[in-house]
């Protein structure tokens, strides 16, 4: 999840003006659109990932989701607040309104976390932790002190 989010958001952060074809906009406005989009996509990545984090060991993250009122309330409030921040509180938060295509793309980028998590949960995890393998091949020996070599006698 982290690698996906970092990769996608960095691409849009550094190349978003070209991707969104904002060359006709002023530099300041183009930066605001790009930054607002990156922020919006980031928030939706977190919202969609909340479902994955809810049941980290299970592939079906939607089981019983509607019966958990607290979880649904948090997701609902977060989504509503995000819409308010982007669409109506731009002066306070330094955002600009996004068109429907950028909204749709933001949500789609977040939604990709569901199939990614499903695939990730399909990867078998070994019973032996990975760091155990490293202990034998990469263990650094600390230099022995002189008094240890003489049996503790100085």
Automatic annotation (TrEMBL):
One of its GO terms (molecular function) is metal ion binding. Keywords: Magnesium, Membrane, Metal-binding, Transmembrane, Transmembrane helix. The chain crosses the membrane at residues 70-90, 102-120. Gene3D superfamilies: Calcium-transporting ATPase, transmembrane domain. Residues 2-121 form the Cation-transporting P-type ATPase C-terminal domain. Pfam families: Cation_ATPase_C. This is Cation-transporting P-type ATPase C-terminal domain-containing protein. The lineage of its organism: Eukaryota, Viridiplantae, Streptophyta, Embryophyta, Tracheophyta.
